[in-house]
Write a structure and sequence with these properties.
Blueprint: H1 8-25, H2 30-41, E1 46-50, H3 56-67, E2 70-75, H4 82-86, E3 87-91, E4 97-101, E5 111-117, H5 124-136, E6 138-141, E7 144-147, E8 152-158, H6 170-175, E9 178-182, H7 188-196, H8 203-208, H9 220-230, H10 235-249, E10 267-270, H11 273-289, H12 297-308, E11 312-314, H13 316-319, H14 322-336
Parallel strand pairs: 1-8, 1-9, 2-5, 5-8
Antiparallel strand pairs: 3-4, 6-7, 10-11
Helix pairs in contact: 1-2, 1-3, 9-11, 11-12
Length: 340
């Protein structure tokens, strides 16, 4: 049952205000902003992917300010090691070796947002620490365990440059609630604004215009639980969701066909129970934002790509074409499976 102490109507108004505030600092990204809002109110971690200079960092910094709490950032680099998250060694004023907490440990439970910039520039060793952080919201250091109950991990990945980069392992990608693709706006008015409206030229000043803590980060766990409990899924909708899952795992058996693809040999894994549970979590949150207490097929379809694409893995013969094949597969599955 929903938490009776939480007024979900008031929180929906806050969520819409949060969404509106984000749209005020980035242009032409309404769909992506909605996805980010869903992820945050579902208590999920977010990976943004896009070209250079399209607003990924601005969007994540804006979300962090609106959530309030403490914020830390680390830059992906080829020499980044797990210890760099936890501590840094230096010489004190007496010339003696000393150790200070790293970006992850400085604020302990008050840490609300941890931003990993250019995550694909970091080696797999760094990804391994991030894996536990996202899965358990905790790490071990200095002979104790640190907990981050309110933490949201944001990361971004530059898809333009491939030199000195490392692909995220499947386990790490699966920990991201959503992978959201960010592209430059295509309409002329937005392009003109971004070029000539000086408001968008100073990112620090732009972020400062937002209300810090508009959505208090420390309340989100309780709000997310209440949202999930308040949205029901009728049996026909449950059957529809299960049929989507089955078609993803065995597209050939579902009659899914793609040009120049043997769909019986396309999918090697993925679309796990955890991933599909995240799909439904996102769909419930979307229904709540739309003012409903029940799921509809549209709720699932609207979050399908952002929550599932990065959780489907292809056989080696097709993996190099995944940027083209993954959206084609998901669109074909949605088209093939009948909605109630």
């Amino acid at each position: 049952m929903p938490n009776c102490d939480i007024n979900l109507n008031e929180w929906r108004d806050r969520a819409i205000a949060f969404e509106s505030a984000l749209n005020s600092v980035v242009l032409g990204l309404n769909k992506q902003v909605r996805s980010l809002t869903i992820a945050i109110f579902s208590r999920g971690h977010v990976l943004l992917e896009g070209d250079v200079g399209v607003g990924k960092t601005t969007l994540l910094r804006a979300a962090a300010r609106l959530l309030g709490g403490e914020y830390q950032r680390i830059e992906g680099a080829i020499d980044l090691m797990p210890s760099d998250f936890l501590y840094h060694a230096y010489l004190d004023q007496n010339g003696q070796p000393a150790v200070a907490p790293g970006p992850l440990l400085q604020h302990e439970e008050a840490l609300a947002v941890f931003f990993f910039n250019e995550i694909n520039r970091a080696r797999p060793q760094a990804h391994s620490l991030l894996l536990r952080l996202m899965a358990e919201r905790s790490v071990n250091a200095f002979n104790r365990e640190y907990h981050f109950p309110h933490l949201t991990v944001f990361a971004d990945r530059n898809r333009l440059e491939r030199e000195e980069t490392f692909e995220l392992p499947a386990a790490a990608r699966d920990r991201f609630f959503m992978e959201i693709s960010i592209d430059a706006p295509s309409d002329r008015d937005s392009q003109r604004d971004l070029m000539f409206n000086q408001r968008f030229h100073n990112v620090d000043a732009l972020i400062d215009t937002l209300q810090a803590g508009l959505v208090p980060y420390s309340d989100l766990n309780s709000v997310a639980d209440a949202v999930q409990s308040s949205v029901r899924a009728e049996l026909p909708l449950q059957d529809y969701a299960v049929n989507l899952w089955r078609a993803l795992r065995n597209p050939a058996d579902a009659g899914v066909m793609l040009d120049d693809v043997d769909t019986s040999r396309l999918v090697s894994g993925g679309a796990s129970p955890r991933g599909m549970a995240m799909l439904m979590r996102a769909a419930r949150c979307r229904a709540w934002l739309e003012g409903r207490d029940y799921l509809s097929p549209d709720d699932i379809r609207e979050v399908f790509h952002d929550t599932v694409t990065h959780r489907v893995f292809f056989t080696p013969a097709y993996e190099l074409r995944r940027e083209i094949l993954a959206p084609q597969l998901l669109n074909s599955v949605i088209d093939k499976v009948s909605a109630p």
